[in-house]
Amino acid sequence: MMSERSRLQVLQGLAQQQDLEGAFVALAERKRAPFSLYPAGLPLGALTHLDGPAATETALRCVAEQQLLAGGRCQAAWVEARISAYPPGLVQRGLDLACLLFVEGEAQYPWAVTELLRSQAFRVVVVASALPDAKSLRRLQLAAEGAGVLALLLAPLPEEAWAVRTRLRCEWLDGQPLLRDAAAEAPRRAEAV
Amino acid sequence: MSVACLYAPAGLAPARQQSLAEACLRLSSQVALRGGEAVFVELAGSQRLFGEPRLRAGLRVLARRLAPGQPLWLGWGAQPGEALARACHDPAARTGAQAPLPLSAMPLQSLQAYAAPFGEDDEVRGQVQALLAALAALGLRSLGDFMGLPARGWGERFGPHAAVLRERLEGRMAVAWPRFSPAQRLEESADLRDLETLSSGPSDESLRFHLKQLCDRVAARLRGRGLRAAGLALTMSFEHLRQAEDAPPWRLELPLALPVAEPSQLRRLLQELMEQAARKRRLPRPLQGLALAVTATAPGFNPQREAFGSQEDEQEALNGLQGRLIARLGQDRVFYAQLRQRHLPEQAWVRQRLPPPPQPVQPKAGWGAVPRPSRLLQRPLLLTRAMDWLVYWGGGARTRRWRALDWQGPERIGLPWWEPAGPGPGLVDSPARDYWRVRTAEGQDLWVYSRQGDEAHGGALWLQGWWG
């Protein structure tokens, strides 16, 4: 849940982070979206995969922060094969439902995601269901790149998902999501095995 | 007053002239026609807002869009007569590149434009022609020569028309503008046949080009009327063959959930519509023509919107996208969420087509203050409890299990006593549910409930949502 005070604290925290210096500039000049949980920022115009038990909470916090930063003019979309997002819970996390379009794609799900990304009408698109293959991921990546949109993938990736540039593992730590770079961890895990 | 005149030296088909005049309504409410030749637009107000160069460019774009392939000359003047005279006789009107001629250097023939700018009157034309011949015999060549004649005794020397024309040249005797009313039906058509061979069956690229032209024209006319399209009908006609029964044209209806006026959005919608139709059934013969009609309209945005930013453009793009998604996915699949004050979780919000009004981010009291999960299943799943484990038997790979670490609750939620128990999932014969938030070793928090009175069935648990 995010009260008015905690919203302000998030904004102040974002403004004070030295890592984010230079991130608060006009959209056209920015290549990364600032995000309090990931100081390097999330890449615009690329796919970001969020994995782990706190993935949804992380994505929602990201959308809420983008909406806060844009001052109520940040359009976001939540697209899923069959909608499982719970709007009362989303409001408790600080999301503005007036700027959040839900799309239930069902059989046409990959097409709907591509259209949403390609439209350039949204700053953030949350893709909450799995995509069928690496080819559709690649198509998505091209659409995201063309539109400069922040695309967050929450579902497991298909094999050979090389189109996904950023992969983050979202764990819980003291009730807060903690993000780790999953791509950097992968070799270490392999060595351990 | 400041007047622009679009003049077609080769003549303009009535439908094209009507369309062009209608599109010009976006710039001014005062528009008039000269039968089959010219369109006049009064631009004094718009000129102060946009400036003359921008208006000139806008008019040239409209002319190219609404009357493609036809030369249209743009004249500009303080009154309709001057604008028409410049459009007909000033070389600058053809290209717009040169500086306009001074009025005094314009040829004497320009007086015909001043005599009857909005329509040819044969009697007046004949009288003015006789006047021009008399003036030419005196050695006059330009309007400057004409105005240089002594003003005394004009009526006696050259007749009543000469005095009137002099008054008009000096801007003292205005002409009444005839009323222009746009046609009731907003329809545009395109012939897809090759102009040289008259063969049907356009290439994909050519079809897109024609579709774009249609959308441009319809959008310009809609904007002229201050409207947006809320419904479209596209008619596809097919090639006629000798000694063969004609294939009936296809009429594709497209009701739009959200009105659209931008040509690019219209084009995408129609492209999607045509692709869908072609997927369902095969084209009987090569395409020969397209006709686009607007079947329903809604009030449009303010035509002077550019002065206040591009918010309407963004909204327009969003409307177009929603229209395309709705056309393919269905009405209920593309929506905004509106919260409702209901206790049962699945009834606490509804889907709606338009964004909800702004509301407080977090309700301060009542059910809204209790933490809710971020995800909710549309149908709860029956869980089996075995020791510390909660198992969902989905069959094969869909089977999931969680090890419960901590149970928080219960929170009792039920229907109010005055509402009968409905046929909702897991709710039959059970007016209340006890909800638990279960912390699991896997890191996710589950939102499970047991129905009141279910003890007889071994205390079945239902998974309805989760945090994480």
Provide structural commentary.
The complex is a heterodimer of chains A (193) and B (468). Chain A is of the alpha/beta class and 193 residues long. Chain A has a single domain, classed as P-loop containing nucleotide triphosphate hydrolases (Rossmann fold, 3-Layer(aba) Sandwich). Helices cover 36% and strands 22% of the residues of chain A. Chain A has 6 helices and 9 strands, in the order αβββαβαβαβαβββα. In chain A, helix 3 (87-92) links the parallel strand 4 and strand 5 (100-104). In chain A, helix 4 runs parallel beside helix 5. Mean pLDDT of chain A is 82; it is low at 22-30 and 187-193. Chain B has 468 residues and is α+β, with helices and mostly antiparallel strands. Chain B has 3 domains: 3-169, no CATH class; 187-331, 2-Layer Sandwich (Dna Ligase, domain 1); 372-467, no CATH class. Chain B contains 13 helices and 16 strands. In chain B, the strands form 4 sheets. Chain B has a 6-stranded antiparallel beta barrel with strand order 11-12-13-14-15-16. In chain B, strands 2-3-1-4 form a 4-stranded antiparallel sheet. Chain B has a 4-stranded antiparallel sheet with strand order 5-8-6-7, with helices on one face. In chain B, helix 1 (14-24) crosses helix 11 and helix 2 (44-50) crosses helix 3. Mean pLDDT of chain B is 83; it is low at 425-429. At the A-B interface, helix 2, helix 3, strand 5 and helix 4 of A face helix 13, strand 9 and strand 11 of B. Strand 5 (100-104) of chain A pairs antiparallel with strand 9 (334-339) of chain B, so a sheet runs across the interface.
Q: Name the pair of protein chains with the most residues at their interface, and give those residue counts.
A: A-B, 49 and 46 residues
The proportion of residues forming helix of chain A, as a percent range, comes to: 25-40%
Backbone structural class of chain B: alpha+beta
Helix tally of chain B?
13
H/E element sequence of chain B: EHEEHHEHHHHHHHEHEEHEHEEEEEEEE
How would you sum up the global shape of chain B? elongated
Work out the oligomeric state of the chains in this entry: heterodimer
Strand content of chain B: 25-35%
Radius of gyration of chain B: 35 Å
CATH architecture designation of chain A: 3-Layer(aba) Sandwich
CATH superfamily of chain A: P-loop containing nucleotide triphosphate hydrolases
Report the major sheet of chain A.
7 strands, mixed
Radius of gyration of chain A: 16 Å
The total strand number of chain A stands at: 9
Uncertain runs of chain A with pLDDT below 50, 5 residues or more?
Answer: 22-30, 187-193
Tally of alpha and pi helices of chain A: 6
Give me the strand/helix succession of chain A: HEEEHEHEHEHEEEH
Number of domains of chain A: 1
